[in-house]
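Researcher: Structure for this, please.
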Amino acid sequence: MPQRRSLKSHTPLDGLPLDDSAHYVCVFRHPLDAHFSFRKHVGNVPFPVFDPWYPADDQAGATFQHFLTGDAQGDQCDAMPLSLILRHFMAAKAVADRPNVSLFHYADMKRDLPGSFEQVARLLGVRHAPQVMDQLIQAADFDNMKQNADRFCPSGGKGFFKSDSDFFDSGSSGKWQGQLSEKELADYDAILDAVLSLKDRRWLEFGSACDLNCS
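Model: Predicted structure, C-alpha cell format:
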C-alpha cells in the first residue's frame, strides 16, 4: 500500500517499533473515567471472558480492587488495570520528545474537537478545504458516531457486540464521581502519587486545560 494508512493498537508504545516514517498519536483519558467506561463496555460484550474481574453483582467492590491491583503483564492486561494505563502513559512520555510522537487527551478533544482536528492535520501534513474539514469534524462528533454505530463501531453491523449503539455509551467525563468510597479514592490517589509527578498526574487526569491548581 503506497498511500497513507493508519493502525490502531492497544499495545504500550515501548512494545511497538518506532519508525521515523510513522507518526504515533497516543490518546489518554482520566484513568477513572476509562475504568467506568470499560465497565459499560464489558457489559456489552456477549461472552463471559471478563466476568471474573467485572461480576454483575459486585457489592463488595471487587471490580475496583482488581483495577487498582491488577498486573499490566500477562492475561490481566486485557481487563485494563490501572497499572496498564500508567504503563501506556509512562512509555509515551519517555519518547514524547521525538518529533513523530504526540500525546492527546480525550478531555481536550471533547472541549475542542475542531482544534484537535487542526492539530492532527498539522502533525501529519494534511490539508483539506474548510468545508471538507467541517464534514470530517461532524462525522467524528460523538452523537453522530452513536447514531451511525453500524458504521463507526468496531465490527459494526456484524453482531460482535450486543449493541453497536451501546459501544458509544455517553462520551462524558466524571462518571466515576459519587461511585467510589473515600478509601477507594485514597488508594487510587496513593498509587498515582507514588508513580507520577503532580504535573503529569494532572495532565493524565484532566488534559492540557488543567494547571497545577486544578482539583
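Researcher: Any notable elements?
Model: The chain is about 45% helix and 5% strand. The CA atoms of residues 66 and 207 lie 25 Å apart.
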